[in-house]
Amino acid sequence: MTGYFFVAYFTLFGLSIQYAAITLLTALLLVSTVVDFRHTIIPDETNFFGMGAGLVLATAFPALHGASAGWEGLLRATMGLLAGGGIVYLTGMIGDF
To answer: What 3-state DSSP class applies to 87?
Structure first.
């Protein structure tokens, strides 16, 4: 499955920074998905690494977020991280009731 994603991304982006970023984050997502299905947990290691990698990539390559400056890419990535994390946290809180 991973190979299919990587080939599809290569045909879309070629050998570029977009390709490297999306394949890294897709691999992390696939690892988290398989571990979650098998053990009903999502490992913090893959989450935190993915969050850090996303912030670093957004700062180093702001064009990934349509930004022109590193700080703007970091700001957009941070907003996305907080929105996504907030939704997951809220879902967990609701599930505890």
So the answer is: helix
Residue 58, class by beta-carbon neighbours within 10 Å (0-12 exposed, 13-18 middle, 19+ buried)? buried
Report the alpha-carbon distance of residue 12 to residue 15 in Å, rounded. Answer: 9
Sign of CA dihedral 68, 81, 24, 26: negative
Cβ contact 53:22 at 8 Å: no
pTM of this prediction? Answer: 0.78
pLDDT tens digits for range 1-57: 889 999 999 999 999 999 999 999 999 999 999 999 999 888 888 889 999 999 999
Residue 21, Cβ density class (10 Å: 0-12 exposed, 13-18 middle, ≥19 buried):
buried
Sole residue written with tokens 């180093």: 60
Q: Residue 76 is encoded by which pair of tokens?
A: 């957009």
pLDDT at 97 over 80: no
